[in-house]
Design goal:
Helix content is 28%, strand content 36%. The protein has helices at 2-13, 27-42, and strands spanning 24-25, 48-50, 55-56, 62-69, 72-84, 87-94. Strands 2-4-5-6 form a 4-stranded antiparallel β-sheet, with helices on one face. A two-stranded antiparallel sheet has the order 1-3.
Length: 100
C-alpha cells in the first residue's frame, strides 16, 4: 500500500504531464522499435513501419502495422514480449504475402 500511495503522490505532482497507471508505447517509439527488431532478426531495416497508434506498455499487447520495403507493403503483427525501464521488446511476425 505504501508504494501505491507514493505512486499516486508522484502522479499528483506530475498530473500536468499526463501521469497514469497504464504506461503506453507511443506510435513513434512503437514504429522505431519494430523496425529495430526486424533489423536485428533479419539483418535489414524496412524502409518504413506504419502503425495506427500507441499501445499499452505491457507484455502480450499486440498491434497490426504495415511495413514498406521498396514498393512492396506487408502487414505485420507486433507483440510486446516485455517492457522494462521504459523500453519495449517485440516479437514481430510479418505476413507471408504482400498486401494488394
Amino acid at each position: 500500500m505504501k508504494l501505491r500511495a507514493v505512486f499516486f503522490a508522484v502522479c499528483a505532482v506530475f498530473a500536468l504531464a499526463g501521469c497514469s497507471a497504464d504506461a503506453t508505447v507511443s506510435k513513434e517509439n512503437l514504429q522505431n522499435g519494430i523496425a529495430d527488431a526486424l533489423q536485428k532478426s533479419v539483418g535489414q531495416r524496412p524502409d518504413s513501419v506504419e502503425c495506427p497508434g500507441s499501445v499499452k506498455a505491457k507484455a502480450g499487447e499486440t498491434t497490426r502495422c504495415v511495413l514498406t520495403a521498396g514498393s512492396t507493403k506487408y502487414g505485420l503483427t507486433a507483440t510486446i514480449t516485455s517492457y522494462d525501464d521504459g523500453t519495449a521488446h517485440y516479437n514481430v511476425q510479418v505476413d507471408n504475402k504482400p498486401m494488394n
